[in-house]
Design brief:
alpha+beta; Ubiquitin Conjugating Enzyme; four-stranded antiparallel beta sheet; 4 strands; globular; ATP binding; Ub_conjugating_enzyme; ubl conjugation pathway; transferase
């Protein structure tokens, strides 16, 4: 199935001149305290009108969203949960072909920190999914989503963990790979990992139920 992008909000293109022209008229005063108040009002007005300009992280996320529009990833769609919040995306990951998850439409929330890309986002499935690398509450546990640096538990190489060069696209590709090839060595869902190793038929039945349920939610 071809990839698609669904943008639920418009990316605003801020114009500084329009911000100034639209500001409520303010009587300038000479005292330092009053100038400080005026400065705060200006900043507040600007941020409320153009929330995407709050940080460098927001600009980068705007760019990555536009890039995904131009070059969509197969099996993935994304939009904003709230058009005024670039830091929270609503995404759908389509089960990869020739896997147990084929045909499923799994919804998730991708939440980005204010210091992105220095720190990784978090991904949490809102659709029911049975997988060794997904906690029972839906949180995805894969190396690329773990903070930069050495793994304190010694399971992962630093090169496998998050680095600022990663993008939303690389995260999505890693999740799709996770669905294709579960890692049962350091599982988030221990019971799912045990079934994957020892009771594969039971594992398949639970995944099939999740796939059917995701289709019914469309």
């Amino acid at each position: 199935m071809n990839g698609f992008i669904s943008l639920q909000g418009k990316i605003h293109k801020p114009l500084f001149s329009s911000v100034i022209n639209n500001l409520d008229s303010i009587q300038l005063c000479v005292s330092r305290r009053e100038l400080t108040i005026i400065s705060s009002l200006l900043k507040s007005k600007f941020k409320s009108k153009y929330p995407f300009m709050a940080s460098q992280a927001s600009l980068l996320l705007q760019k990555q969203l536009k890039d995904l529009c131009k070059n969509p990833v197969d099996g993935f769609s994304a939009g904003l949960v709230d058009e005024n919040n670039i830091f929270e995306w609503s995404v759908t990951i389509i089960g990869p072909p020739d896997t147990l998850y084929e045909g499923g439409f799994f919804n998730a929330i991708m939440s980005f920190p204010s210091n992105y890309p220095n720190s990784p986002p978090s991904v949490k499935f809102t659709s029911e999914i049975w997988h060794p690398n997904v906690y029972t509450d839906g949180r995805v546990c894969i190396s690329i989503l773990h903070p930069p640096g050495e793994d304190p538990n010694g399971y992962e190489l630093a090169s496998e963990r998050w680095t600022p060069v990663h993008t939303v696209e690389s995260i999505v590709l890693s999740i799709i790979s996770m669905l294709s090839s579960p890692n049962d060595e350091s599982p988030a869902n221990v019971e799912a990992a045990k079934e994957w190793r020892d009771r594969r038929d039971d594992f398949k039945k639970k995944v099939s139920r999740c796939v059917r349920k995701s289709q019914e939610m469309l």
